[in-house]
Design goal:
It is built from ten helices and 13 strands. With 317 residues, the chain is of the alpha/beta class. The protein folds into two domains: 221 residues, Ribonuclease Z/Hydroxyacylglutathione hydrolase-like (Metallo-beta-lactamase, Chain A, 4-Layer Sandwich); 74 residues, no CATH class. The strands form two sheets. A seven-stranded mixed beta sheet has the order 1-2-3-5-6-7-8. The chain binds zinc ion (2 copies). The site of one zinc ion (ZN) has 4 residues, from loops. The site of one zinc ion has 4 residues, from loops. Pfam families: Lactamase_B (PF00753), WHD_BLACT (PF17778).
Length: 317
């Protein structure tokens, strides 16, 4: 349902949804990875100001919030219209530094020099100065933001990257999950930006404990059954890890052997992605002391070069 009030905030030519009430989600074309083509821009600008502000120590106050302005350059005009219609007391939150989440930042700083950017410092240091040179606040999780008198709680949720953050709208218990979850399929972890399987599991447990009513991913649809989705993610990752362990126990010693064994059904063009996943799982198995005695992590690490020669580029760490 779209209320007359909220529809004023978004250009009528763009498709968008408002759920829960007050939280507007605009899928905007971005340079994201398949099967997606868009990044959800989340806009929160409550009309009725409530006063929750007394008991909390807020790191930032604003009348409006924008999360992950990651649209492509040809949609910057649309983004500009959205930002121009919002209050000047604007807070911008980015879940992590990937281009499909920050490509629109430069438009915001041009349009509203008073805006404040909030992100983890591992995210902040990867954002180019051309994209953001205005005021910013580095956060590490646990802080609160006050938007129009309503509280949003910042949650450190590493795994996808080492600076990845989520945001909980406290009143509706809606969790903006960045790229930790996606609307369909499973999320990729970025091994080159501190992506880590143990962190990913921990952040997933944290989300399950929070028991949000809805999950708002940045790619694809809102999820109204968070527990089901999060437990499904855990189940899939555990089962993948088990297949990798089985391949190792059956004698696979190199990255190529493991990928060829576990991902034999998957198109070879996707093997570089699969290789990152295997490396993350091997790290995780090693941390848990689950690798068999005969398996050498050094030999495995040395086999990355041979994999790259056979299959193509692999992600640096
Ligand atoms: Zn990402
Ligand atoms: Zn993304």
């Amino acid at each position: 349902m779209i209320s007359a009030q909220s529809s004023e905030k978004v250009n009528a030519t763009l498709h968008y949804q408002e759920y829960p009430p007050g939280v507007i989600i605009v899928p905007m074309k971005s340079r994201t990875a398949k099967p997606f083509h868009t990044t959800n821009l989340v806009i929160f600008a409550p009309k009725s100001v409530k006063n929750e502000s007394e008991d909390y120590n807020f790191v930032a106050h604003g009348d409006a919030l924008i999360v992950d302005p990651g649209c492509r350059a040809d949609f910057h005009e649309e983004l500009l219209k959205i930002v121009a219609a919002l209050s000047k007391k604007l807070v911008v939150f980015v879940t992590h530094h990937h281009g499909d989440h920050v490509d629109g930042l430069s438009v915001i700083q041009k349009c509203n020099p008073n805006a404040t950017l909030i992100a983890h410092e591992n995210t902040m240091r990867r954002i180019r100065k051309d994209d953001w040179s205005l005021g910013h606040i580095s956060v590490s999780g646990g802080e609160d933001i006050c938007i129009g008198g309503q509280r949003l709680n910042i949650i450190f949720a590493p795994g996808h990257t080492d600076g990845h953050m989520a945001l909980l709208h406290v009143e509706t218990h809606s969790l903006i999950v960045g790229d930790h979850c996606v609307g369909q399929g499973s999320a990729l972890l970025d091994i080159a930006s501190g992506g880590n399987m143990a962190d990913y599991f921990q952040s997933t447990y944290k989300f399950i404990e929070l028991a949000p009513h809805i999950l708002i991913p940045m790619h694809g649809r809102v999820n109204l059954w968070p527990k089901h989705m999060l437990c499904g993610y855990l189940k899939n990752r555990r089962s993948r890890e088990l297949s990798i362990l089985e391949a190792i126990e059956n004698g696979a010693k190199t990255l190529f052997d493991i990928v060829a064994n576990v991902y034999s059904e998957v198109d070879r063009s996707l093997w570089p992605h699969a290789a990152s996943n295997v490396r993350l799982h091997v790290d995780h198995l090693s941390q848990q002391n689950m690798l068999p005695k005969g398996f050498s992590v050094d030999t495995f690490n040395c086999s990355l070069v041979a994999f790259a020669e056979k299959v193509g580029k692999i992600e640096p760490k």
